[in-house]
Amino acid sequence: MTPPPTAHDQPSRRQDALPPLQVFLAAPRGFCAGVDRAVLIVEQALERFGAPIYVRHEIVHNRYVVSSLEARGAVFVDELDEVPDGGRVVFSAHGVPKSVPEEARRRKLFYLDATCPLVSKVHVEAERRHREGDHIIMIGHEGHPEVIGTMGQLPEGSITLIENVGQVAGLSVPDPEKLSLITQTTLSVDDTRDIIAALKARFPAIRSPRKDDICYATTNRQNAVKEIAGKCDALMVIGAPNSSNSLRLVEVGRRAGCANAFLLQRATDLDIGALGSIASLGITAGASAPEILVREVLDRLGEHFAITVEEVAVTQEDLRFKLPRELT
């Protein structure tokens, strides 16, 4: 992670005339290992093979990242039928149904799979439990690309999706004694815990994953928000409105004691007047938001406040994922 700004980094112009603002910078924040790997796959594919490199769906849910890659020659498409014969294509970090690589192979397209390895782990778990005869219950958000990709690993009807505790009571399953549980990797840890408890109360035989499906980065970023939320008059989550993990950070911040928690995409979207006369501001970034967006926000704040930045770290992250062998 990029080191937090020092006093030397912070704007000094008119500091004595500006209102003070204490900024608590959550850590970890921003890019996780899976997002970093996915973006690097597209960048290295462009370097090795040249433009265009087609990318099925947004490589990660962040407009800044997508626009930056487009400027270098990446072409984002919704489906493979938009990729011309002979094209090279990358699958997004969220994962894809099995039908997508099957179609790519049928058309003899060169493809690179940027699916986060932690999402792939959920795929493997679902397939293994399906082979053992279990019906799969998935906790996740309907329509999210990761959920579509995971449910697409198995024959239709093999996975039942639920989104909240209220759905558990009316859940109909083929055999209550043959059930397994998986989850989307970017959910609220607290919400998911409540849904799992309800499922286990109704279906005592349901089998959980050997290891929690919610990824380490989601958990760490939520824990960091919990650490700073009670200290802040307002909490800013830098991320995209279609980013599940960023939206969950807003929810976690509100529940952890900061009612004024909100999502922001870019510094240019920041309404300084809406901050009012706050004395303290918490800042974090979703797992698909690059650190440069945090720096832009700090620069913008420095034009209107005499800011003091304190980074609050709950853990260090050093995980790295290998690139596909085609790039190494």
Describe this structure in words.
- The chain has 328 residues and is of the alpha/beta class.
- It has 3 domains: 15-31 and 216-313, Cobalt-precorrin-4 Transmethylase, domain 1 (3-Layer(aba) Sandwich), CATH 3.40.1010.20; 33-116, Rossmann fold; 118-213, Cobalt-precorrin-4 Transmethylase, domain 1, CATH 3.40.1010.20.
- Helices cover 33% and strands 19% of the residues.
- It contains 9 helices and 12 strands.
- The strands form 3 sheets. Strands 10-9-11-1-12 form a 5-stranded parallel beta sheet, sandwiched between helices.
- Helix 2 (63-71) links the parallel strand 2 and strand 3.
- The protein starts with 19 loop residues before the first strand and ends in a 15-residue tail after the last strand.
Oligomer: single chain
Helix content: 25-40%
CATH superfamily of the largest domain: 4-hydroxy-3-methylbut-2-enyl diphosphate reductase, catalytic domain
Shape, per Cα inertia axes:
flat
Distance between the termini: 24 Å
SSE string, helices as H and strands as E: EHEHEEHEHEHEEHHEHEEHE
When the domains are counted, the total is 3
Question: How big a fraction of the residues is strand?
Answer: 15-25%
Side by side, the strands of the main sheet go 10-9-11-1-12
CATH class of the largest domain: Alpha Beta
The class by helix and strand makeup works out as alpha/beta
Query: Radius of gyration over alpha carbons?
Result: 21 Å
Q: Would you identify the regions where 5 or more consecutive residues have pLDDT less than 50?
A: none
CATH architecture of the largest domain: 3-Layer(aba) Sandwich
What's the mean pLDDT score? 94
Largest sheet: 5 strands, parallel
DSSP E strands, number: 12
